[in-house]
Design goal:
Length: about 375
């Protein structure tokens, strides 16, 4: 950040006159016209993947894969990506999946039941540990705090690293599946995410043309709706209060976001349009319209305290009204809801012929303040 940027940030903090404070943001980086490498860069694939000897879990083979993150955070414990690949013995005619977990359980193995259920149904599934969570959590730092930080220097790199790691995992998965010509002709790879993983999946898929379909479980969009209509409000509001961000600043940013979204929908690529505020680049709403030609399934919960209905509907509209299934539950797709969730995902993926697309209606996502 140069002296002019530093002075502008200081003046904003003192007066609150120009809107939300981007502490630590490289001002020039955010003001210049964005290209496809300024944000969410992906220089992959990684030069080396560390492959561990496979282990058998019944009729499923589990292979552990590790590689260095291509968008490192500077924390060694976070910058080695861990993934587990599950494939059943014999033919697996289903499309390969990259599975992204949520905040929930503390350890990656706690998410394996979802991955193994999918693999057993014939979908080769790669479970990827997201940055700052599970085995990649940083000692002494609250798990996943980077994703809810109001500091652009923390939150945007976390999402960028998550997207980069997902694309690197996809590279390995495609190389692995290319060894099996007997499965040629099936649909291409899908991204499947739960909660936070669903947000990352939407962002990543919009940037990654090799992803042919997306499954969003307990996901949503519109960060303003997620934060101020859900239980995350207290955590984020404290940060905004410290930065002296007032409702009038939010309303002005909301107006700008509405204009920005209209430009993004018309652009060939979601990063072609300059982002006036850093958090526009954290919001799946920014990227969702660029998935309108790809099959998408949404599964959400009617009584979800974390992902409010408004956020679900905003994503649904911006995606072009894809299939949306509702659980009579809260923010968890396991337990008594798991059989329904697995069955719904399986039916959706098996119903996709190679190259299938949909023709959604125009998005109606509202720029109004929640």
């Amino acid at each position: 950040m140069d002296e002019n940027d530093r002075r502008a940030t200081s003046e904003t903090a003192e007066t609150g006159a120009t809107g939300p404070v981007d502490n630590g943001v490289d001002g020039a980086r955010f003001r210049r016209h964005l290209d496809h490498t300024a944000h969410y860069p992906y220089p992959g694939p990684p030069q080396e993947y560390e492959i561990f000897p496979p282990k058998w879990r019944g009729r499923l083979r589990m292979t552990e894969v590790r590689f260095a993150s291509l968008h490192p955070s500077g924390h060694p414990e976070n910058d080695t990506v861990r993934a587990r690949f599950f494939r059943r013995a014999g033919p697996s005619p289903g499309q390969p999946l990259v599975f992204l977990h949520g905040f929930g359980p503390r350890w990656l193995w706690c998410w394996e039941s979802f991955a193994t259920s999918l693999a057993a149904r014939g979908f080769p599934t790669m479970l990827v540990c997201l940055p700052f969570l599970c085995e990649r959590a940083i000692t002494g730092v609250h798990r996943g705090a980077a994703y809810s930080s109001a500091d652009a220097a923390i939150s945007l790199p976390a999402y960028e690293q998550a997207a980069s790691d997902t694309r690197a995992a996809l590279d390995w998965l495609l190389l692995e599946e290319a060894k099996r010509p007997a499965d040629a002709g099936r649909p291409g790879p899908a991204l499947l995410g739960i909660s936070l993983g669903a947000l990352v999946a939407v962002i990543t898929a919009s940037l990654e043309p090799r992803v042919e379909s997306v499954v969003s479980v307990l996901g949503g969009a519109d960060l303003d709706a997620i934060v101020f209509k859900g239980i995350l409000r207290t955590v984020v509001q404290e940060q905004l209060d410290r930065a002296r961000v007032e409702p009038r600043h939010r309303r002005e940013a909301r107006r700008i976001y509405g204009e920005y979204l209209r430009e993004v929908r018309r652009a060939p690529h979601p990063l072609d349009v300059p982002a006036p505020y850093h958090y526009f680049l954290l919001d799946p709403l920014t990227f969702a319209s660029h998935l309108k030609t790809r099959p998408v399934l949404m599964i959400n919960a009617r009584f979800d305290p974390i992902m409010p209905r408004l956020a679900t509907e905003q994503l649904w509209l911006e995606l072009g009204k894809p299939p949306l299934r509702w659980l009579w539950g809260t923010h968890w797709p396991g337990g008594p809801w798991k059989p329904y969730v697995m069955r719904t995902i399986t039916q959706f993926l098996r119903g996709l012929p190679p190259g299938a697309t949909r023709t959604p209606a125009d998005s109606e996502a509202s720029p109004e303040l929640p």
